[in-house]
Write a sequence for this structure.
């Protein structure tokens, strides 16, 4: 081994704590970066790639065939901003039935579907991918979309349409994927007339791509251009590719702003800690550098030896961190892969390469810069470090601190940060980032908890489920069948002692013009205003014809509070006015919540499938449930405890990630403090020895070292707290926006005053945690040894 | 001599590798004595001083100082023992560079919990007596070696110790400053302060000590009483105008 290598290695061995801190900080930085980078890659889902490959439809427009002609719509391909168009294709909304599967509704009913007549799968827009079988080229054939939610998965299955004249039957000849989700199924154009309900004109579909369609505002402008280029009143609905993307990416989209926030914190923290550790190690080794130079080392050799001392532990830490990051990423990526269905559960190699190269590069640059300073140092000055009195910085602070009415050991410690302002600045920054991470994490956890409770929206004590015999002939299978007489149930509920208030709920599927797939309507009987749904804006519905909807529905249908939408339910058009926006992070993006009376005309047999009961105050819920169960037994109806629906997988994953990343950041922050306090304590070991020789007890020594970080912790906390609050206030709405959810202010302003006070002290806790080890070391150091230290 | 301040009995100090820094040392120092411990490097004289100061523990034997069994004290106990009984003067002064001269001197009293005003009054008095009052607000880095050692002596006397331990007090000083410190120790001794000085400097031992102990290979080779203690109280001119308070005030209090 060369002399240079030996010097570097001996430096690594000699300064064990700094070596450990450098290695651990590098390891944690790399672990967090690999994890964050991989998740960012995973959240950058396959939708964009697939959409680009299929020349996806940026705007899918539905027209009333009674108010427009094919020629007029074809001409809209030349509307302003349109770069490509396909169509017009004839469309129909139908209610299919299948007798081939047991998973269909009671009478074989499937979800309503929008079927499009297309001669082939290809085209300049929405180049549909045939996954299985063949395209429908003749009458009697149908190709189902992969996104169509049905139990039919076999080519050769048959679908019937008993509601249509002639009871047409179609054979499934293939399955296809439209990334743009332009249809639930496709048939040959010649088939459409047979699928169009009598007395209706049916519809046309046009698919457009535009020069600018990256934002909702641009899509709005594009839609306006299409509207003006087509006959007035003919455009009945549109579907933006942004909404489709949102629906696909929804869960993982939640991760993106969250990971960007943690990624930013992690990267800045890594820069700070690695810089602190390396610069501190070089700074503390000045006398050693002087000795090396006195022995004949050139400045360049000194620089290289110090870079080596920093790079050895950093390289080891980086390697371990990369392995840990890859191992940790697997379960997390598996979760997101399950959400996406297509993302591989491995770390992209370039993420590893970039993180490793970035960290080592950073360490090298910082070590080089710090060692360069030592290389330039005059040998005589370097040798004098520790031998000659220190002058200047910190003396005024020491003088002021000595006047404070505090124990002397404490006031001695309080003055110490002022002797090394740059080092103190680095430590404050580390503590501030740690405190910001804790604040951010707690805020995230509270906001996610709020979202979870909004998702569960269960405020009742007891639930009654209505289970009855199969529906009778002609009864819609898509309704929640409740042949049990609702009046009998409500009579029992009213008679039962302890019943406070209750409401019934049911659900059914309808279609909304321009929105692909079905829209679920949740109906409520009785006063449901206490149901626990969290409102973003507007109010809960109060009368038939009023509805509340989630923001995703409003975006998809381009509606606002006060607007009216038309639901197609069993051939009836039901107009509902939107009176409120509800926060609902469920998977289904299209849902409408309204009074049962709103759809009573279209679905007279839709009765509550669930009764939600709140007992009167002081009532024993279990006893009430037992009594109610006994009363309801003759009706074949049972009760169950209202225990909510448990935590969402995504929210649980976000919570777990928050905990892991926060722990890492706090650990790195504490390590940064540890390293700096170790440096400080080592530099002051002779002073500590003197103080101990003069009668300073171990407890006083610990007080002095802890006091030296107390102000740093408080200042760091004071900076970190508002930074964490600001980061949380920016990230949560951004997460909501990514997922198409509007978080109300109550979900963002989640901190109570005691929590804020405690968080403000978080910086102090981090600083004290980091200083405990060197404080103990200082207290244990034998006075004789300390006095002998050079 | 009436009362003994130091009683060492069969003290040995062996390190892990078996090397004995001290071997069966027994020693008694009476109140008011000024003892010089001489010996070549590595002979064990500093180890002996550390035992007396409670900075190190013997492997065997007992150490009793001012009625305190020092060898059984834990770290906190030995710190309190030093506060109450020991004043230490080091070769390289060991002043805290970021504290003023006054703050350095008052530090032992503050650590012992003395009231601030009382501590500062006594520190100012000591600085005045030792002729360095004009440097009270200066930082140690601005002082000469001799002045710094005076500050160290003032600090050592702050808590009125029963015993002043000096480890090569002139070792880092030029001859003029060395002479100054030598005179100062003489004055303290003349006023009744018990002093144990570890030194290579034979002239220091001859000038200040009433008893000279020579240690060779961890054992006491000679223990010679050299004569009566000096009587020249405040005989050496101070760098600043002489104090109006006699130095004997300090030693009288120290002896209490």
């Amino acid at each position: 081994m060369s002399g240079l290598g030996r010097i570097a290695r001996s430096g690594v061995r000699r300064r064990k704590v700094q070596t450990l801190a450098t290695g651990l900080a590098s390891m944690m930085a790399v672990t967090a970066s690999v994890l964050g980078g991989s998740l960012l890659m995973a959240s950058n889902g396959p939708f964009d790639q697939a959409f680009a490959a299929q020349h996806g439809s940026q705007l899918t427009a539905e027209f009333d065939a009674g108010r427009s002609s094919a020629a007029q719509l074809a001409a809209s391909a030349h509307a302003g901003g349109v770069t490509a168009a396909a169509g017009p294709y004839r469309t129909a909304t139908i209610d299919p039935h299948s007798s081939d599967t047991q998973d269909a509704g009671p009478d074989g009913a499937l979800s309503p579907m929008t079927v499009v007549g297309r001669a082939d799968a290809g085209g300049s827009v929405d180049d549909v991918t045939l996954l299985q079988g063949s395209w429908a080229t003749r009458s009697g054939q149908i190709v189902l979309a992969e996104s169509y939610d049905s139990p039919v998965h076999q080519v050769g299955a048959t679908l019937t349409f008993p509601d249509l004249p002639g009871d047409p039957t179609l054979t499934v000849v293939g399955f296809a994927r439209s990334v743009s989700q332009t249809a639930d199924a496709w048939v040959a154009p010649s088939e459409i007339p047979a699928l169009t309900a009598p007395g209706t004109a049916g519809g046309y579909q046009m698919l457009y791509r535009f020069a600018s369609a990256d934002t909702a505002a641009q899509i709005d402008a594009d839609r306006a251009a299409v509207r003006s280029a087509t006959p007035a009143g003919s455009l009945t609905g549109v579907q933006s590719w942004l909404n489709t993307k949102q629906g696909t990416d929804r869960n993982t989209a939640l991760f993106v702003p969250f990971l960007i926030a943690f990624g930013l914190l992690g990267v800045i923290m890594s820069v700070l800690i690695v810089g602190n550790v390396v610069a501190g190690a070089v700074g503390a080794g000045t006398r050693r550098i002087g000795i090396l130079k006195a022995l004949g080392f050139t400045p360049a050799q000194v620089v290289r030896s110090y870079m080596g001392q920093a790079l050895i532990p950093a390289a080891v830490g980086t390697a371990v961190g990369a392995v840990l990051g890859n191992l940790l990423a697997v379960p997390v990526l598996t979760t997101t892969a399950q959400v996406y269905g297509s993302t591989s559960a491995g770390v992209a190699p370039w993420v590893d390469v970039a993180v490793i190269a970035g960290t080592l590069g950073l360490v090298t640059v910082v070590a080089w810069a710090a060692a360069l300073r030592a290389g330039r140092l005059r040998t005589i000055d370097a040798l004098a470090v520790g031998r000659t009195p220190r002058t200047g910085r910190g003396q005024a602070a020491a003088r002021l601190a000595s006047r404070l009415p505090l124990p002397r050991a404490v006031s001695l410690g309080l003055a110490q940060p002022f002797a090394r302002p740059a080092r103190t600045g680095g430590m404050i920054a580390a503590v501030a980032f740690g405190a910001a991470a804790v604040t951010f994490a707690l805020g995230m956890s509270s906001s996610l908890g709020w979202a979870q409770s909004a998702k569960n929206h269960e405020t009742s004590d007891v639930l009654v489920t209505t289970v009855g015999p199969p529906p009778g002939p002609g009864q819609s299978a898509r309704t929640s069948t409740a042949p049990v007489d609702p009046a009998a149930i409500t009579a029992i509920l009213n008679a039962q002692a302890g019943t406070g208030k209750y409401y019934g709920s049911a659900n059914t599927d309808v279609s909304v013009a321009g929105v692909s797939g079905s829209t679920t309507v949740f109906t409520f009987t009785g006063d449901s205003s206490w149901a626990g749904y969290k409102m973003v804006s507007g109010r809960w519905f109060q009368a038939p014809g009023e509805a509340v909807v989630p923001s995703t529905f409003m975006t998809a249908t381009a509606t606002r509070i006060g607007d009216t939408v038309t639901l197609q339910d069993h051939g009836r058009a039901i107009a509902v006015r939107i009176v409120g926006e509800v926060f609902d992070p469920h998977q289904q993006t299209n849902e409408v919540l309204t009074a049962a009376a709103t759809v009573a005309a279209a679905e007279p047999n839709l009765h509550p499938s669930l009764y939600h009961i709140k007992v009167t105050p002081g009532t024993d819920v279990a006893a009430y449930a037992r009594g109610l169960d006994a009363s309801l037994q003759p009706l074949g109806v049972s009760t169950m405890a209202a225990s909510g629906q448990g935590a969402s997988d995504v929210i649980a994953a976000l919570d777990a990630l928050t905990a892991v990343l926060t722990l890492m950041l706090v650990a790195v922050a504490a390590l940064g403090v540890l390293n700096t306090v170790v440096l400080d304590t080592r530099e002051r070991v002779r002073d500590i020895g003197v103080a101990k020789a003069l009668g300073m007890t171990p407890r006083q020594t610990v007080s002095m070292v802890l006091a030296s970080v107390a102000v740093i912790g408080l200042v760091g906390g004071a900076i970190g707290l508002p930074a964490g609050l600001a980061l949380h206030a920016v990230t949560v709405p951004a997460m909501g926006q990514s997922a198409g959810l509007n978080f109300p202010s109550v979900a963002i302003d989640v901190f109570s005053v005691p929590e804020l006070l405690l968080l403000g002290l978080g910086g102090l806790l981090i600083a004290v945690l980091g200083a405990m080890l060197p404080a103990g070391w200082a207290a244990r150091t034998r006075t004789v040894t300390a006095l002998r230290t050079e | 001599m009436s009362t003994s301040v130091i009683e060492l009995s069969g003290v040995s100090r062996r390190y892990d590798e078996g090397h004995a820094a001290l071997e069966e040392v027994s020693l008694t120092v009476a109140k008011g004595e000024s003892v010089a411990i001489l010996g070549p490097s590595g002979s064990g004289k500093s180890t002996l001083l550390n035992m007396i100061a409670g900075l190190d523990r013997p492997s065997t034997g007992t150490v009793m100082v001012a009625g305190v069994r020092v060898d059984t004290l834990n770290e906190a106990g030995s710190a309190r023992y030093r506060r109450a009984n020991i004043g230490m003067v080091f070769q390289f002064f060991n002043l805290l560079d970021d504290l003023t001269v006054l703050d350095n001197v008052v530090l032992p009293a503050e650590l012992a919990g003395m009231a601030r005003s009382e501590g500062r009054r006594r520190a100012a008095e000591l600085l005045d007596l030792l002729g360095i009052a004009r440097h009270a607000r200066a930082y140690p880095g601005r002082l000469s070696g001799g002045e710094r050692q005076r500050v160290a002596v003032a600090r050592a006397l702050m808590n009125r110790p029963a015993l002043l331990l000096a480890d090569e007090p002139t070792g880092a000083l030029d001859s003029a400053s060395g002479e100054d410190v030598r005179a100062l120790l003489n004055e303290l001794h003349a006023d009744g302060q018990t002093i144990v000085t570890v030194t290579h400097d034979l002239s220091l031992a001859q000038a200040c000590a009433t008893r000279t102990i020579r240690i060779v290979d961890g054992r006491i080779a000679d223990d010679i009483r050299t004569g009566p203690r000096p009587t020249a109280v405040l005989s050496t001119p101070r760098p600043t105008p002489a104090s109006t308070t006699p130095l004997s005030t300090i030693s009288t209090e120290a002896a209490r």
Observations:
- Residues 338-343, 467-482 of chain A have pLDDT under 50 and may be disordered.
- The first helix of chain A runs from residue 3 to 14.
